[in-house]
């Protein structure tokens, strides 16, 4: 990365040569501050459902940033900016710390939940990432196998050797690894089998219209069967209707997430929601 200071503007050129505006840069300064003062940044949690038993097995932590001027900033927007400015390292630490503390709290209340956290390609290039993660897990006395790290295909592909080494290390310690947004990247099936992953999350673009699009059904069926042959469990994200949910069940999909089941929500709301679904069954 190259930073160019001029009288009128500050611009940063990312690896790909994109120009970052002064406004975006100042937002990154504000994000740094938001991490220090509690309130603007929070985690929402979206339930993950076992499609065979319809029981909640865990949650995915999703970042929310309410900017004092710009309002809610979509996470995929500020996460990408954080990746290009190096802020992703403290941001991921922020998320992991809160998500693990929350998980510890829930587990101490007797809630048997797993926690999934999204991480970035950049995190896998940090030499200390694995050691820090294991220390954090140890500090909250959480069994590593109740944590799943979700990463996208590109995250692993851009610096394969280092990323693979870090991933293997993490996996050997018992932490689960999921491939997120599967199907929109470029991984081949043989490549997938080399990764130390436990879970495949089919991208929501294939799930939305599953009950109406024969092509999507073919893709999803093939992906589920292939993943099972590789010993992976399969998650469908973006389930927006009961029809799609039943279709996925029939196709043998293991887990599901989506607005039809529940939207991402604050921790307190999740506990109340869990109470309502657990008394229903
Ligand atoms: P993701 O990890 O693939 O998360 C799934 C996204 O789909 C979430 O968007 C979720 O709110 C949304 N979603 C879930 N069910 C449905 C549904 O039924 N319909 C539709 N239309 N959407 C659904 P969100 O929260 O805006 O997050 C977007 C992306 O931002 C995430 O995609 C992830 O890549 C990234 N992200 C979010 N939080 C974090 C974080 O803490 N760290 C990192 N590195 N990335 C994060
Ligand atoms: Mg995810
Ligand atoms: Mg996804
Ligand atoms: Mg995504």
Automatic annotation (TrEMBL):
This is Diguanylate cyclase (GGDEF)-like protein. Residues 24-278 form the EAL domain. It comes from the Bacteria.
């Amino acid at each position: 990365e190259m930073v160019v200071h001029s009288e009128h503007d500050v611009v940063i050129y990312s690896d790909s040569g994109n120009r970052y505006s002064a406004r975006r840069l100042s937002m990154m300064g504000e994000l740094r501050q938001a991490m220090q003062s509690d309130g603007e940044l929070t985690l929402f949690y979206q339930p993950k459902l076992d499609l065979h038993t319809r029981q909640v097995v865990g949650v995915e932590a999703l970042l929310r940033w309410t900017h004092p001027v710009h309002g809610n900033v979509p996470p995929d927007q500020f996460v990408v900016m954080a990746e290009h400015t190096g802020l992703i390292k403290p941001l991921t630490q922020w998320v992991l710390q809160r998500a693990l503390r929350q998980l510890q709290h829930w587990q101490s209340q007797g809630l048997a939940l797993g926690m999934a956290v999204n991480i970035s390609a950049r995190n896998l290039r940090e030499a200390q990432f694995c050691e820090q993660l294991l220390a954090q897990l140890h500090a909250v006395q959480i069994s590593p196998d109740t944590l799943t790290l979700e990463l996208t295909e590109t995250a692993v592909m851009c610096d394969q050797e280092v990323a693979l080494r870090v991933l293997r290390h993490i996996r050997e310690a018992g932490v689960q690894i999921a491939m997120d947004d599967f199907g929109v990247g470029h991984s081949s099936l043989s490549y997938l089998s080399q990764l130390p992953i436990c879970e495949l999350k089919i991208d929501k673009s294939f799930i939305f219209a599953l009950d109406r699009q024969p092509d999507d059904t073919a893709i999803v069926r093939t992906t589920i069967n292939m993943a099972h042959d590789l010993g992976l469990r399969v998650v469908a994200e973006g389930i927006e209707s009961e029809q799609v949910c039943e279709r996925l069940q029939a196709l043998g999909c293991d887990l599901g997430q989506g607005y039809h089941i529940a939207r991402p929500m604050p921790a307190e709301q999740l506990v109340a929601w869990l109470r309502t679904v657990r008394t229903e069954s």
